[in-house]
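Blinded run. Sample ID left blank on purpose so nobody reads anything into the name before looking at the predicted structure. Input follows.
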Amino acid sequence: MLLNNSVAIVTGGSRGIGRGICLELARAGAKVVVNYAGHAEKAEETVRLIQEIGGNAIAVQGDVSKKEDVARLISTT
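Blinded prediction complete.
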């Protein structure tokens, strides 16, 4: 567990490569924040997959090109 007590924010973490990165970070011990812009169901599915392998994750919606969304993303974690 290389990343115990770490928090990893993964933008675009709801599917594809982002989902794979989320899963690997969770396997390494990080608490994962799955950031998504518009695929809530996919983000929640990623969270569920992480929990199934014993990891800790939350999904947070936000557009990282918008300053206020980034601020909310950071404050949520």
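Unblinding after everyone has recorded impressions. The mean pLDDT is 96.
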